[in-house]
Specification:
Oligomer: single chain
Number of helices: 14
CATH architecture of the largest domain: 3-Layer(aba) Sandwich
Strand order of the largest sheet: 15-16-17-14-13-19-20
Distance between the termini: 66 Å
Shape: globular
Radius of gyration: 23 Å
Largest sheet: 7 strands, mixed
Helix content: 25-40%
Number of domains: 2
CATH class of the largest domain: Alpha Beta
Strand content: 15-25%
CATH topology of the largest domain: Aldehyde Dehydrogenase, Chain A, domain 1
Length: 478
């Protein structure tokens, strides 16, 4: 079985241990063995990044732009190959995998342009004869910790701006999906970026993640993952005075009003709740439906869910692939049991499925007769499990939608401009969708939420500079 090493100081270095990368659609299919670094290798990576930083941070912006554009071009040219790899290791359908890879390529191309667009300000001083310049400079070495559910796009939207603005990087991908991170590292390695500017350190979060966050050579940490881990990272960064950016959980509401187009509402709910196996922080797991449309909505949802094909992620015709891991499958199914024990009714799905190959297949679950205070409506499940909450009108729907410790994404299905406008203003979420799935965002605009979903400045688009740069104010006597 092929071994895939860590990339440190421009060299592929063997690790103390390796772990197999298993296809969740077929547990007999391994994508190879991937490095499991120790703290000594992490120290080497940080040292390499520190050494590379002075030259890279002051290098010409055209060289950075050319390198990022080259990375994006290769990713896009190989989108089908890399999309298949993504689907084999994470479990989303091949079409979704190819789409995610294309998004990653476009992110690098966007930030290739941002290398040339980083502006500043020139202001007059209140004191005569003095000029004031306000500029942005890179932070230093950035530690990036990425999750398993978007193994190509999320590393891209952290790595690309970090490099564009002159920082050096140590990337620690999720242990479950090292293949995409390794492939991305290989492309970056061959792009012409100097040795040490980008480093890949694969390994267990409990070993590498903690050491990365607490390393004195790391200037800032950008993390996407669970709330509990994010809170610990925030505390560690506060103690060590590091800049921190966190994207964590979601319990996203999808409101369906009486005046909604039923076909549109059902399709966007199915897309939001179940596609990508529900393994998206923007997925909608709370379907909040008003009285008059409720019976028709439930009937239409049942019929639509019956047509969903669950199967091998790379097989033609598959709508939903497997859950990413056994641990996640067990968690998803446990929440179906929890919901029923609290009084909800399982209307569809919720069982483990058998297919031609052994994998982590689950029938999408729909729970009805649920109430806002049930655990299934308070806690992030992160799987193909959705619950329906019945409400009397728009006002109650808005109140229930906002009654959550999270605030990432929220959606509304309505034909009323009045309600759509009001919801966009009064939804306590960082992103709001009108007659669209809650999951699905562009790569060139800010991404992030409120409350327990996000901490720190936004990711993506021009707003990424808020995290990856520091402001400097310089005074000059004329």
């Amino acid at each position: 079985m092929t071994q895939h090493h860590n990339l440190i100081a421009g060299e592929w270095l063997a690790a103390p241990n390796y772990a197999p990368n298993i296809n969740p659609s077929n547990l007999q299919d391994s994508l190879g063995d991937y490095a499991q670094a120790d703290v000594a290798q992490l120290d080497m990576a940080v040292a390499a990044a520190q050494k590379a930083f002075p030259a890279w941070s002051t290098s010409g912006v055209q060289a950075r732009a050319d390198a990022l554009d080259k990375i994006g071009t290769e990713i896009l040219a190989r989108r089908e190959e890399l999309g298949t790899l993504l689907s084999r290791e994470e479990g989303k359908t091949r079409a979704e995998g190819i789409g995610e890879v294309a998004r990653a390529g476009n992110i690098f191309k966007f930030f290739a342009g941002e290398c040339l667009r980083l502006g500043g300000e020139v202001l007059p001083s209140v004191r005569p004869g003095i000029g004031v310049e306000i500029t942005r400079e890179p932070l230093g070495v950035i530690g990036l910790i990425t999750p398993w559910n978007f193994p190509m796009a999320i590393p891209a939207w952290k790595v690309a701006p970090a490099l564009a603005y002159g920082n050096c990087v140590v990337l620690k991908p999720a242990d479950l999906v090292p293949g995409c991170a390794w492939a991305l590292a290989d492309i970056i390695h061959r792009s012409g970026i100097p040795a040490g500017v980008f480093n890949l350190v694969m390994g267990r979060g409990s070993v590498i993640g903690d050491a990365l966050v607490n390393h004195p050579g790391i200037a800032a940490v950008s993390f996407t993952g669970s709330v509990g881990v994010g809170q610990r990272i925030a505390a560690a960064c506060a103690i060590n005075m590091k800049k921190v950016q966190l994207e964590m959980g979601g319990k996203n509401p999808q409101v369906v009003l009486d005046d909604a187009d039923l076909g549109v509402a059902v399709e966007l709910c199915v897309q939001s709740a179940f596609y990508s196996t529900g393994q998206r922080c923007t997925a909608s797991s709370r379907l909040i439906v008003t009285d008059k449309i409720y019976p028709a909505f439930i009937d239409a949802m049942q019929k639509r869910m019956a047509s969903i094909k669950v199967g091998d992620a790379c097989a033609a015709g598959t709508d939903i692939g497997p859950v990413a891991s056994l641990a996640q499958l067990e968690q998803d199914m446990s929440y179906v049991d929890i919901g029923q024990s609290e009084g909800a009714t399982l209307l569809a799905g919720g069982d483990r499925l058998q297919r031609d190959t052994e994998g982590f297949y689950m029938a999408p679950a729909l729970l009805v007769d649920s109430t806002p205070q049930m655990r299934i409506n308070r806690e992030e499940i992160f799987g193909p499990v959705a619950s329906v909450i019945r409400v009397k009108d728009y006002d109650e729907a808005l109140a229930v939608a906002n009654d959550t410790p999270f605030g990432l994404s929220a959606g509304i299905a309505t034909t009323s401009l009045k309600y759509a406008t009001h919801f966009k203003r009064h939804s306590q979420a960082g992103m709001v969708m009108v007659n669209l799935p809650t999951a699905g965002v562009d790569y060139h605009v800010p991404f992030g939420g409120r409350k327990g979903s996000s901490y720190g400045s936004r990711e993506q688009g021009t707003y990424a500079k808020e995290f990856f740069t520091v402001v400097k104010t310089a005074y000059t006597l004329a």
